Predict the structure.
Amino acid sequence: MILIALASLAGAATIKVDPEGKTGPKTIGAAVLSARDGDLVMIPEGSFRESLRIDKNITLEGPGAEVGGYGQTVFTLAAKGATLRNLTIKNSGQYPLVVMEADNTMLLGCRLSEGAAGAAAYGQSTVMDNDIRATTDGVRAFGAAVVGNNSISGALGTGIAAVGARAEIRENNVSDCGTGIDLAAENIATGNRVEDSNLGIRARAYGIILDDNSCQGNRIAGIYLENATSAQVIGNLLHGNGNGIMLKTSTGILLRDNKATANAYGISMKGSGNNTLSGNVLENNTCHLRVEPEKIGDLRVLTPQISIDPAFNQSIDQTNIADGSPVCYLVGQRDRAIREACGFVGLIGCLNVTVQDQHVGNGSPGIMIVGSKHCRLLNCSASDSEKAVYILDSQECLIHEVQARNCDVGFWVGRSQEIYLEDCRAESCRQSGYRLEGARSAAVRGSWAESCLEGIYMIDALSCQVIGCSILSNQEIGLHLMRAHRAVLRDNLVSRNGDGISITGSNAASVSGNRILDNLQAGIMLAQTKGGTLEENLASGNREGIFLQGSSDLLVAGNNLSTNTRYGLRMSMTVSSNLTDNRLAFNGLAGASLTDCQENRIYHNDFVNNGGALGQNAVDNGNNQWDQGPQIGGNYWSDHHVLGNPGSSARSILSHGTDRYPFQDPGGWRI
């Protein structure tokens, strides 16, 4: 056997291509035709236009040679051991530049460009040390190929696409591609550097191993696992990506000893449960850790039953570090307290757990409570997070003296009941300071919402309360209710917002004892609302004190609506409501303006010096009652003097309507 191998080696020849035909074959094809297994074909400097099928175990080499296919595959390696080395290969149009059909074929140290793919590698091929530029795909590996130490850039599709199983993608530099490396089967990617692509490394199969890769500046994600299972992601560096590591609908993934820095999200898991995280380091990311279901479901479904989406079921131990502190992610624990400093806090399916004195930042969210009961957050803060505090599908939890600053949402309560936020503070939130969505019997008490887009927002909520809060300088709406029925808003200070209190489609609200001052638009606005009371509120310095639109069956009583720039009370298409014992004084255009309103009862109100020089205390173009007969009487009018409480000298309302029994004294019905 040894003698046969030596004889074969001794018989190997070097065939030199000579375009002039003096010392060797004139074309590469002619040289290949004359070569035997083991021969070396040397190609001189110069340009060649050929499309060749190599069906012999030979090597083609030419450091200065440029071989172009002009719209066709340039080389097809159809024999075991066929090798291309140190060639410039280009211009195959819609076809791969090199097709490696047989096992043990090699593409080494070549420069490839201007093709649908640099190389299409089937079987056990080797693609090493090549420079591949401006192709649709760099390398397509359909079998157990080894793709290593290549430089691949500018691929419109994928730098390296491993379609077949057991490919090894090692120590490549891939940049400026659609997807840097795409693994669609049981492959290994190790030691690669992937930069400035849409996706760095994408994995979407069973059993993939990603270790010691560096992914930087990739727009969507450095490492992206989609529908993957039982993968290992170990020891990777993720810097400056959209997501450092992103898992989407992937399970059984091991994330260990990765370092994610300066990404938008360090580690993001969406619809991906039963994964294990240990030893990961998260630093200087906009948000360190994100765990969320694929779909959150209908938040309008209010049920007392606690449920937990499987996406929250993760094994995340305290060897994971966020900005120098351990990640505290508790699943199914009970009767314990967390007081040690954490970089992220998650309570999943917990009972009677207290979290105290935590100060976290850069979270998505900072602190999360999911499917838990009787839990408490005490004296904590969260800043620079998407949601400072995130509560979902939980019951009977207390959030006390917690601060949220510079977050998208300060406190988010979704599909939960009896959640009590007391003495909390939300400042400079880009969306809502507090958002209660699908909440039931929740309360915000003694808390602050300041300099947010909206202060407190309730939507699809039931029987929730806002009591004794300060809601200040929010850009759009201070206190916003949308389909939030039977809400109680009491004793709040609502000042310097866009709108003060805005209530839409929220029946049976109780709004009482609030001070609503100096808001740019309406102090209180009710729209498409049935039932409810507005009592003993002070609305001053707003555009309108109270604005009622398309509503019915309201009680507006005992409010002080004074010194608003336009109207004390403005009503449009509102019916069957009682307006009584209110003071409307010194408002800019009119005390009360009713447009297209019917069957409202307006009596026992003080109208004092409204409308400036025009003297318009009230305007009405509809069919409404401005008194309740001679015994009960009508209203007091500063511009209409009568004798008696009530008197009998009728007062006409501008446009339409008459108060037949006005009073001579302010509040004369009380005398």
